[in-house]
Amino acid sequence: MVRIGIIGKTNVGKTTFFNAATLLNAKISNYPFTTKTPNYGRAYVQTLCVCREFKIKDNPKNSTCIEGWRFIPVELIDLPGLIEGAYAGKGLGNQFLKVAMSSDVLLHVIDASGSIDEEGKIVEPGRGDPVKDYYQVENELIMWFKRFIEERKKRIEKVMDSRKVDFPEALRFVFSGTGIKLNTILEALKLSDLEDKKFSEWKDEDLKHFSSALRQRARPTLIVANKMDLPTASENYEKLIKEFGERFVVPCSADAELALRKAERAGMVKYIPGEETFKILDEQKLTDKQKKALSYVSNRVFGKWLRTGVQFAINFAVFKLLRMNVVYPVLEEKKLADSHGNVLPDAYLMPPDSTVRDLAEKIHSDLARHFIYAVDVRTNLRLPENYILRDRDVIKIVAARKK
Ligand SMILES: Nc1nc2c(ncn2[C@@H]2O[C@H](COP(=O)(O)OP(=O)(O)O)[C@@H](O)[C@H]2O)c(=O)[nH]1
Ligand SMILES: [Mg+2]
CA separation (Å) from 7 to 101, 205, 380? Predict the structure, then answer.
């Protein structure tokens, strides 16, 4: 399953985002380090379901379909808040990085309203500096990589010597178990222009550049500018997109999304996560406080930013950063069903450049072993096993019958 890690300083709203996206009630509070261990939960990525195009009523099994929106499960991890000096053991160091690197993609949540100070304590909105907060956390990650390599300098040289391998291979070896792959190491070497410099001759500066490049290449990361409902956030948002570009910053109000999902669950509103509107079902049943809260969400979030940004951030991370495609395997191409008659039962997230064989493998290793050919259900054309899957493909896989 695709894994999304939530990182950021304390009190920026990571747990609120996590709770909204998973609608679980993990503990929320203003104290630093409330989340001591990572929290794992099930969230969903949203895509336009093919049921609309085929004009058919589906009954999904591995995912769910709400009014033509297919929601496919992903794993969400709420990581402990990172504060300055964490890499040096003051915070949670190694354990943190290991979990962060076990994610496919990261959401770096920042408090765009500037309601936290340098240590992550809640202050009057507008006093904090979200751009600085972002760099503080990113710097922690870079420093962790730097220290990790520094502490293993002898070991790296020993590995190169005894195993007769080159530097990238030796580095891969010491990084094994952390989720850092050889490819990432090679890319980082290139990016920091250190491909031709002998490791034994690296200066402190070189190691810093390399660590920074390694962080950049390690996991794609989306900036989630949270607390956009607060007035002080607008000005900071301008600063953020100036610094990072509009493409990489998603405005968000995790609190608003949490309120809406709770209201939806309680039957007060009709709201589909990710949609740019919600509807109050029965105004008379609401208390004044509830009315006020919903009108706050309507004015301060939907009126200004179109959406709460929670679902949008997850979608963006999966479809834009990871470039995943959604593929619907079926057994019966006429009914678009599985062997039990379930219509469009499954939707799979497939990484870019996956083939139909990869899809077969993902469904069942047996299916891959007995694979004969696949059919594009839309065109009824036979597909070779190395056909590269596209988004929204509906595929029938034909396998030899097991004896
Ligand atoms: N105004 C506003 N407050 C928020 C929002 N998201 C979270 N908060 C508040 O920020 C505080 C810290 O939230 P929490 O999720 O515990 O932060 P974490 O330490 O990053 O996990 C809580 O008081 C939340 O209610 C938001 O979108 N808008
Ligand atoms: Mg938290």
Answer: 11, 26, 45
Q: Pocket of ligand 1, candidates 16, 133, 227: which has the most ligand atoms within 8 Å of its Cβ, to mutate?
A: 16
How far apart CA 211 and CA 142 sit, in angstroms, is 5
- Same domain? 394 vs 381: yes
Q: Does residue 364 form part of some domain?
A: yes
Residue at a domain's end among 292, 322, 352:
322
Using the atom order of ligand 1, give the atom closest to the CA of residue 16. 15
Give the domain-ending residue among 299, 322, 345. Answer: 322
Task: State pLDDT tens for residues 129-151.
Answer: 999 999 999 998 999 899 889 99
| Chain segment 259-273, per-residue pLDDT in tens | 999 999 999 999 999
Q: Kindly give the distance from the C-alpha atom of residue 126 to the centroid of ligand 1, in angstroms, as a whole number.
A: 15
Give the ligand with the smallest distance to the CA of 35.
2
User: Chain centroid to CA 292: how far?
Assistant: 32
**pTM > 0.90:** yes
226, containing H or E segment = strand 221-226
Give me ligand 1 centre to Cα 315, in Å: 21
